[in-house]
Amino acid sequence: MHSKNILVVDDEPSIRSLYHIAFSHSGYEVRVASSGEDALEMLEEEYAEIIFLDLNLPGIKGDQLCPKILEKWPGTRMIAITGDLKPFGELECREAGFHHVLTKPIQLIELLDAAQGTPEE
Hints:
The protein is α/β, with parallel strands linked by helices. About 40% of the residues lie in helices and about 20% in strands.
């Protein structure tokens, strides 16, 4: 069992639910947020060691939110999730502070590897 907690930030309810189930069954403590603003509020209440952050959120976008989170919580492991890298680019994601970028559809093993810090870095 893992002791790390994860925050999943995605505006798609089915993605939030699927990731919650996958990480919970793998022993992680999981919370979900539907927007960047909700994520910031949740982080104020309880720190998350790992954040899976959708890049194309309503309101504040994931690539804008990542540096804000890292400024306040610099030890956070940030993983970008997106359906389309074209508007962002992997280099821009890395420059924003993301440790890894996953493109939907994401295989379960990719999610778990990213949470453990085992993808190529």
